[in-house]
């Protein structure tokens, strides 16, 4: 069956883009469009052509399934399709609904006329892949909408509702219903009125002070997107549209597209784009696995984490019963949730009436019996196995059959937690990241006996609550925290041998991290890591740790919540200030362990921390804890502040070259201080490096 079905109605040919789910402009569809236009040109009974989309989109642009395959560039490529439409002997009308993005919008701009349904989402999102539009988007859009509007659309990549274009030349008509019927009627009016076949390319860009505005826009793009070249290149392409004849501008746009395609930043952004989609695919769980219905949720714990988790469900329209051990804790938790919503309302993100509506979806309780009708319950209690045992024993007794019992544990053995119940198949890990109502990552931990429908349901639920769900197997710390432990270990060793906490943080933040390790520790609470280390000293006496971090905690310096950690904090402020107390502690600690401080470069700091992540990530891959390297990268991009333009630790290692990674690790192993044994390359890393391969092959 063709991807571009051809029909006629009242002397108007209708070509329907039919390549679900979003009518991506793959090779077969592109071929079908060209054939349809040629067929209409050859039929004397046809006076005009309407191009529209089947299903839930006009077109979402390129077919991502063809990325990096010969079909992506095979003729007719998108440029050829647009030239065919633009040069057609009969008027061509794009009838747009739902989604019109990227190449889909570029195709529409190549048509002689465009009509749309109100509410259709219009965008050129290529900048989000580190690219400029490559089929005339930067050249044609400024010719049909004000220059400022075109720049905002192209540089942001964000969708704009079709009705926002009223009064511009992008759409010749907007309809509220019956798009095809109205488009056919519009086509007949075009023919009857002998309105011809106007081309966007022939229009001039009307802007009285284009040069000054583009200079301003370029400066803004440089300051806002410091690590990403694409926004500035988008301005360059639009500048070409203003200054050059159309064909020359088109060539400049294409040159910039090809240039950006080779950049590491674009590779990183494309990796993240595909990685997010790959993360939702679980090899042994079929996409058509029946899922359990989630109409009501429950959360145990109304603290910072529990309250944030509850907000996710409420925001998605799912009512939540929230349980605490005391009325005081319950009231405090609800007050914090209300404060968060009221802050959103003050900033215009919520209507005042929505605050009350959402608060009304929260049912506070002190009794486990009130949780019995929830379809999923998530515990967010203290990270202690004895506490988890008590909670899950009570949940097992009260929850209805088929309810999902989820743990927000960040390190503990989920299989052991599941064994506290008579229904281990219903137990799963849902590790949210703080603040849970903001952070995008949801680490979904699959236990040994977790049922496939429970896993499928939780993955589907992650999308509903607007999280990026990534599946992890069971191990201490799962994927993210198991790796970050090695990162923090090396950060501690770097301070012991000569770097200050400020230098370590500055080096990492300059490289692109949102926050350095010591600022991150102070924010999260240093006592959390200390608790884990004390457990490690018993369970893993072979694992070495820099004891400096323990000494900081022994002083009661747990971070921002105590007003002091590796830094000090003025009351009510979050600025991390150097503290002479820590400087003195570091000096004395170095003397005790017999280390003479040395000068450490930013490059050593960055790569000791990064390659610690990579080596542990390789072990996690080899053990099957992570299904794919891109899953690890998604966890770090969405949960740990890893710079998006770097693509994640595993992709960064690939771009560095695994042979080079192993060689650098050998240099680190030669340093006697910093656990030289750790720098033995993981077997998978050593194997891939020797074979000249990569993690994301």
Features:
single chain; 697 residues; alpha/beta; 2-enoyl-CoA Hydratase, Chain A, domain 1; Rossmann fold; N-(1-d-carboxylethyl)-l-norvaline Dehydrogenase, domain 2; 3 domains; 17 strands; 47% helix
Proportion of residues in helical segments:
40-55%
Mean pLDDT: 94
- Biggest β-sheet: strands ordered side by side in the sheet: 12-11-10-13-14-15-16-17
CATH architecture of the largest domain: Alpha-Beta Complex
Question: What's the total number of strands?
Answer: 17
Distance between the ends:
34 Å
Radius of gyration: 29 Å
In terms of DSSP E residues, the strand content is 5-15%
Low-pLDDT sequence parts:
none
Structural class: alpha/beta
CATH topology of the largest domain: 2-enoyl-CoA Hydratase, Chain A, domain 1
Short description:
The protein is an alpha/beta fold and 697 residues long. The relative contact order is 0.06. The mean pLDDT is 94.
What does this 3D model show about the protein?
The chain contains 27 helices and 17 strands. The chain has three domains: 6-260, 2-enoyl-CoA Hydratase, Chain A, domain 1; 297-472, Rossmann fold; 480-690, N-(1-d-carboxylethyl)-l-norvaline Dehydrogenase, domain 2 (Orthogonal Bundle), CATH 1.10.1040. The protein is 47% helix and 10% strand. Helix 8 (230-243) runs antiparallel to helix 9 (246-261) and helix 25 (649-656) crosses helix 26. The mean pLDDT is 94. The chain is of the alpha/beta class and 697 residues long.
